Amino acid sequence: QVELVESGGGTVQAGGSLKLSCAASGGNFRGCGIAWYRQAPGKERELVSSLSSAGATTYADSVKGRFTISRDNAQTTHYLQMNNLKSEDTAVYYCQAGMGFNCFYYWGRGTQVTVSS
Questions:
Q1: To 5 degrees, how large is the angle CA 78–CA 55–CA 96?
Q2: N or C, which end of the chain is more exposed by having fewer CB within 10 Å?
Q3: What whole-number distance in Å separates Cα of residue 116 and Cα of residue 95?
């Protein structure tokens, strides 16, 4: 059974850092894209960052220069390094990854990030 599990969320003061991890079980995302989304209370889920199988990255304007997406060589874990966190970064963060020969996209269950000012 394929599953994605996020970890690394928590509460941090403004200006601090967190590193989120997304571990895949039952498969890997070799040849597929990965991404991180977030959803703040009362708001729609938004794309934070993505990394294509070819290595191309995208970042939301609000996180450019502060967040970095990456993946491990085994293509089973990907990460979101978040620096200089701001109160507006407070949200539930979800990882997404394509897996399998057709890159079917799976979602994690989310991890809470709270930034206190």
A1: 35
A2: N
A3: 23
Q: In what order do the strands lie in the sheet with 77-82?
A: 3-7, 18-25, 77-82, 67-71
Residue ranges with strand state E in the chain: 3-7, 10-13, 18-25, 34-39, 46-51, 57-59, 67-71, 77-82, 91-99, 104-107, 111-116
Q: To the nearest whole percent, how much of the chain has pLDDT over 90?
A: 92
The residues, ordered by sequence, that sit 6+ positions from 102 with a Cβ below 8 Å of its Cβ are none
C-alpha count within 13 angstroms, C-beta hemisphere, residue 43:
14
CA angle (51, 38, 97) in 5-degree steps:
35
- Check residue 13 and give its pLDDT: 98
